[in-house]
Structure formats: C-alpha cells, structure tokens
Amino acid sequence: MNVAGKTVVITGSSSGIGAVAARQLAKQGARVCLVARREEELASVQREITSEGGQAWIYPADLTDEASLNQCAERILDAHQRVDVLVNNAAHSIRRPITEALDRLHDYQRTMNINYIAAVGLTLKLLPRMLEQGEGQVVNISTLSSQVPIPLFSAYLASKSALESFSRSLLAELGHKGIDVTVVYFPMVRTPMSSRTSIYRHMPMMNVDKAAGWIVKAVNKRPARVGSPVGTLGSLALAAMPGPVTRFTQPAFRQMDRMLKHKMSKDR
Ligand SMILES: NC(=O)c1ccc[n+]([C@@H]2O[C@H](COP(=O)([O-])OP(=O)(O)OC[C@H]3O[C@@H](n4cnc5c(N)ncnc54)[C@H](OP(=O)(O)O)[C@@H]3O)[C@@H](O)[C@H]2O)c1
C-alpha cells in the first residue's frame, strides 16, 4: 500500500499527534484535510506542510456541534473527489477519580461527545463516498489503557472502548465492501494532552514523531490493530481473568502515582 495521492482526512490535526501525523503523511505524498476547532493552528500546520512541498486543506470545525460537523463533511466532499482515509484522532481526556465525579455527569457526556459521537458522526458522513469508490479506510485512535485497565480515567476510557466497539462493527459489516478499519492503541505520548497532567512530567513516554509514525503505518498497511505487545498481552490477560487482572494491577498503579508525585515534589 502507498499513501501517495490518497486523500486523508485527519481530525485533531491542530496539535499533538494529529499535527505531526498530517505532516508525515503529506511528506509521503498524501493530500491531507486538517480538521480541528482552532483555525490559526490548522493554518500553521498547513503552512508547514506546503513549505515542505506537500498538499493540505483546512476545515475548522467543532466536531461536537452537529451542524459544524455536517458542514465540515460537506465542504470536504465538495472539494475532493475521493476520500480514501478518515483518521478519527480528535479527543479530550479527563483524569478524575469516579468518587470526585459524582456530580459531574458532564465529564462523561463531554468525552463521549468528542471521542465517540463526533468520530461516528464524521464516519457516517464520509462512508458513502468510500462505498461509492469501492474502498476506503477508517482509522480510529484509542489507547493502551483500554487494553490494560488503569484507574482514574473512567470517562475517557469508556468513550474509547465505545469507539473500539463501533470499529469492530464497521469492519464486520463493511470489510467485504472494501472498507478497512484500524484501531490504534497508543501508550502515553508526550503531547499537550498528556502535559496537562502535571505528575506525568517524570513519566517515560513515547515521543510524538514515533506516535505519528503509528498512524502512517496504519494508513500504509491497513491492519485491524496497531499497538504494542504489552497492550496485546494486557487484553489477553484481561479477557481471560478480568477480576484478578483488574484487582491485582491497581496497587501497581497507585505505587506509580505515589512515585511520580514524589519526584514532582522534589522539583519544587
Ligand atoms: N497523548 C497521549 O498520551 C495519548 C495516549 C493514548 C491515546 N491518545 C490519543 O491520541 C489522540 C491525539 O491526542 P494528542 O495527545 O495528540 O492530543 P492533543 O494534542 O490534545 O490534540 C487533541 C486534538 O483534538 C482536537 N479537538 C479537541 N476537541 C475538538 C472538537 N470539539 N472539535 C474538533 N477538534 C477537537 C484539538 O484541536 P482544537 O483544540 O483546535 O479543536 C487537538 O487538535 C487522541 O485521540 C488521544 O485520545 C493520546
């Protein structure tokens, strides 16, 4: 497979992994459509791409707003004959214990709206073009933490698990019509998203270029999953023994949190 000449729509491309993945894809000859809310940032990514000889278009949109999402999809479909790949990468993460979210149902609604509903919404809008073409690919971005259960991210992880489940249905229903579906399970990556949690300053993380390379690999090879051996082992263990695996890994996470907090306190 080759990304050259393919039209790739990538959401959340104003920052972090999405912005770098768009640049890497454009370098390999993809025509990239950049989607996010912040127009200035999108324009800056577009300038970087065109200065490197690539092709990029920007579509500022709030994907949690149905009218904005529909308008964005229509503009993309009007401007491009083909839509070869949709990368649903835009997301929001919340780190909060469930006991501190008892009066915060909106945490769950907000994460669901951007991480799941928006991704499904854009997929439904672009899918008819892919079916007309007789082929296409949807790449949905998830996290290693849905393969290995970690505490404190219930709203975020539930929304990513919903997206994974939708991905499986999409592949099961439309794989035979040329629609490939890939789920990418990132570990922690150093980006604006992970930097918002100050105790993660000392945590070893994947760098953003390598993470963006996973999206490029997904588009080039079109597998059902791109992830790490740790994630695969974690999901096997979880499927075999959900109770013990979930209970026994929690003390390790608590210990890791204590260690990171301790390292942070030494910075002060
Ligand atoms: N960083 C990590 O450690 C990590 C780990 C596992 C998985 N992931 C996943 O990797 C993906 C990229 O994350 P990142 O770390 O690169 O995050 P990031 O730098 O915070 O980027 C998030 C992107 O989503 C866009 N976005 C958020 N709300 C939006 C909305 N309502 N409408 C349109 N766009 C919206 C943001 O753009 P605007 O603000 O301009 O709208 C931004 O471009 C996400 O799916 C994330 O869940 C990240």
TrEMBL record:
Gene3D superfamilies noted in UniProt: NAD(P)-binding Rossmann-like Domain
Family: Belongs to the short-chain dehydrogenases/reductases (SDR) family.
Domain Ketoreductase: 6-192
Gene Ontology MF: a single term: oxidoreductase activity
UniProt cross-references to SUPFAM superfamilies, sorted A to Z: NAD(P)-binding Rossmann-fold domains
Signal peptide residue numbers: none
InterPro entries attached to this UniProt entry: KR_dom (IPR057326), NAD(P)-bd_dom_sf (IPR036291), SDR_fam (IPR002347)
Any Gene Ontology CC annotation: membrane
Taxon lineage: Bacteria, Pseudomonadati, Pseudomonadota, Gammaproteobacteria, Pseudomonadales
Keywords: Oxidoreductase
The name this protein goes by in its record: Fatty acyl-CoA reductase
